[in-house]
Records
---
Amino acid sequence: MKIVVLIKQVPATDKVKMDEETGTMIRDGVEAELNPLDLYAVEEAIRIKENLGNDAEISVISMGPRMAVDAVKNAIAMGCDKGYLLSGKKFAGADTWATGYALSIAIKKMLAEFDLILCGERATDGETGQVGPGVGAHLDIPVLTYVSKIVEITKEKIIVHRAIEGGYEVVEAPMPALVSVVKEINEPSIPTLRGKIKAKNTEIPILTAEDIGVDEGRLGLKGSLTRVVKTFHPQVARKGEIISTSKDLDGSVNGLINYLRQKEII
Amino acid sequence: MENRVEDYKGVWTLGEMREGEIHPVSYELLAWGKDLADKIGVELSSIIIGHDIKDKAYELVYRGANRVYVVENPALENFRADPYSKILTSLVEEYKPEIFIASATTTGRTLMPICAVKLQTGLTADCTGLDIDTEEKLLIQTRPAIGGNIMATIKTPTARPQMSTVRPKSKRPLPIDKSRKGEIIVKEFGGEYLLSRVKRLNFLKEETVGAPIQDADIIISCGKGLKDGKKLNIINELAELLGGSVGASRKAVDLGWISYSHQVGLSGKTVSPKLYIACGISGAVQHLAGMSSAETVIAINSDPEADIFRAADFGVVGDIFEVIPLFIQKLKERSKE
């Protein structure tokens, strides 16, 4: 079975510190990491391969700046077999449409045959969740989103649980298919020392627009149909009233009830 | 065929059906849609797809739609990406709306990216604000990114329709107005439009207190401070009493106290309830990312230095096992009065 995992490198969220004055995130000098929600996709690919008695090949594909090679290597350290990075000026500034397009072309070019594409539900920076379904649409294959469990998988078909509002939808699709997974699906493993050494010694080809032979008018900022016209910091800081129960539990709870009543919530 | 921007006219919203009923997020979308349509001076239409739904279409007129397109067939009873995207794409190509919005539910966030690819147009995810640039007559889409730390304003200058998914609970629906009149148009689709590669085998309903957290107006959320999953009953009791749902921090989910569907935050759900009560939650950046758009936030935590207090409108410093039972008792006394 040929498995493709789509990943993204994002700013490391657990190292983020907040500026207490402005209530915004301090981004300077923040490290980058493999999108935490992609770890579940990488792990699921590794588990599928194990369950097939290792009769599978896992390719990781990412798009981003050169430093995103580290994220691809991280996925290889976890147990993926090989990786590619789409990088270069022509890809830069892409919106979700252009990103999905570039990734779908790269998949077709580099891996003429594939059975399954796995990706995380969304990236923790852009948080759109649109690239996965977009890749599926560009390749015209079934798209299964919010997958919390793979019940059965063969080269012909896949049965999964989709975690949707109010419960789990059990669905079956023919392969090849694109599956986006949620955190519930597994617990990602930490790379072994052997995995890290393998990753270090694995060459990650950097693919440019010329390498994959794409319609350049559809790439990067030029090919993006949406435009970010402004960014700003939200006013998140709420200056809440704080009461303490250490002296007067009864009074504090009355204060809370009064507050909710004033707000006409209760 | 060349499509010109000026050929596109009108605002469309996607109505969402769940278990044969129009889901209330559809009315929130109409409230957004009406704002936009009025500002541009065009009509507002809604689309519903499902099985045996025609007699419900007028509900959308009462909530602001001038026109409702209805597509019904037994094969369309549940959301399936293949037929739904083929039908929507075909309708958009036929009627050419300039704006087309859907809710950022699991359905909207699956369906709209597929439609956007097929329609070769831009799509902006999970917007919390929509407006019109009246000079350019362009849709102004505002959305949070990076865990709510940055807001971005996005436009789709040349491609049509301008498409977005909109975060549930980001606007109140318009009140029902039964004097409103509108047009119901039934569109027939058959043959290949109804085919789906994905087959639904079953639905495993999750039994919980209250609505799914994405739909809840009130969420009582628990974190590490609960100390023991068996103590979840006090959170459940408070949720039941307030008519709310139960949320949780990542920690509470990872410890197995409650299922993932309840997780609020960067690796869980983003919620915008009217009231969010954080009980024993420290307030990590990742958690705040999922609930900072709540209307009112209450924090109960024994640590006065906890970050959650900086994200709260009202905070109670105290042991949740003392505060919550007394809170419950007083709420019960109030309801007796």
---
Amino acid sequence: MGALNYENSSDPGTLSFEVGNERTLVRILTPTDIIERNQIIDTLLHLSSLRREGTQPYIAAPRLLGATLDSQILRSSGIGLLLYDDRRIEETIKPGPIQHTIRINQASPSFNTNTTLIAELAALRLTCAELEKNMSHMRSEFKSFRESVMSSTTISRDSNPVRTFEPLQRPETTFQTNVLGEHALPSFFTNNPWLDVLSKRGHTEGTPLAG
Amino acid sequence: MDFGTSDFKFGPITCGENPRIVNNRGYFPDKKSLVYRAFEPAADVIVGDEVPLYLQSNEDLTSRLVYPMKNGLIDKDDDKAWKVVSALSQFGLDSFHVTANNAFQGYNIVASLSAVSPRYMYERLLELFKQMNHSGNVRAVTVIPQPFAVAIGHGVTTCVVIESGHGNSQICPISKYPIGSAQVALNRGGGDANAITAEILKDSGYGDLAGEESLVRRVKESIGLIPDDLDAAISEAKRAPRKFHAKHKVPGTRVEIDLEQNSWTRFLIGEYVFNPNHEIFESYFNRGMPRPRDVKMGETTFRGMLDFGDAIVASVEKCPVELQPMLYHEILLSGGNFSWKVSESMEGVAVNAPTKIKSLLRAKGIRNVSVKMTTSPQFSVWHGCIIYGFAVPEDYGWDWQRLEGWLRIGA
């Protein structure tokens, strides 16, 4: 076969062959093992543990034992099955990388999830940094705006018609129609002589005719 | 805030040309009723846009629905009416709520009342605003007479304002101030035109409809005419009955009112408002229509039978002589009772309100007069309030003698 046979010193019941880069592990069951159910399970578990060491694990069992073994379990574990009797040895189930593939597939969702979470965390960190930057900018703008309002109150009040109700806006003796600008006032303010008359109330007026 | 007889108009200068309007009325829900006890408690008085939601056909609306300014006056002890005024004022204030901040320190409120409002109405209204300032949104308040506000809104500083509403009319000369001592009040308004319309309907065989107030008002507005000269108009209407045929179809019904050969009576409707002294009205008085009487309300005597011409002359002649020509030169008519339609085909016989006033004054020998309708009859009082509030300096404190100035309420 061109294979190299190695005796596994740590596990005397296991044969090990190397063909090129591939390594084949064969665990042999004897007819007496049929009686001991735990022995079969133990063998399967043991091969599974050796799966990391070899790429092609086999279980070799007497042909009589073949009917009692569940081929599906072996396939899902990627363990091959060799049945033998006095005349021949037959490869019933080929070992495969199924189990290895399954493991990778089972591991991938959590891997993907972790990757997504890390990406989201990074994005959040960026957003947070951006918000902090904006907030700092707004604070400085608000500060400068407040300073400008404090230093020039008259100009800022002129822009809001509602603020004409404030006492500081009221003219002392004469009414200034340009406080808000003509365009900002309703039409009934236009050329209304009462604006001048009423603005002098309490100041430079004569005795009213009212009784 | 304009407390009109039927509408309450309110809003700050930021409303622009027109204020917000709600009916000047309040509804007092039956708080003993199971419905109100079962559900969340209703306010003592409902005002504003929600009133129609509370109206129920099986309830006695005459006692629960209160129009506080029906005649421009509220009795001192009419607690229900004052509650409505208070609720409306609060409603007006809450409708334009502004969160207190360094820039906004409260509204300066200008309220407008009828020119014949007695002093206790000023006192009560100012007290109401003091009490409702729990939100801190009122900085100062003042009350001005409606004719004064009309003059301000119209932009005329020397004039006579005639305000005619449903129940009464007021003639108020103004020369930078309202000349209170020269005011003349008439116990006549749109309601009296309704009364004569109902009599005309009875005479024309529509007695069954004469009791429906809203229908009578619509008929008045549809067929009523102001004659330039009543005798001439009646002659003309009888000579050309088809031209002056008075017919009114009530929309959405089978009811059609046709005065037929009595169509000339449509001139009586307008004439009665301006001058009820024509002998033709005596027949109506004799048959039971109440004659407009002189009544004293508050401190004012409302004259019943004084025609508008005599009322204007009486008012103006209480003013200094040198002022009188200027007053005659600017007569402003305000209020729904002066809105009369004139068909082109009837021009010369039927006239509008300003022409009728001129005609009445001409009969008294006063010729160089100018009579105008206010440009915005519905909102001119509110316009005046806005200008007054805008222009009067805040350090002009309230003066009980002048009934003017700002009463400071807020800090």
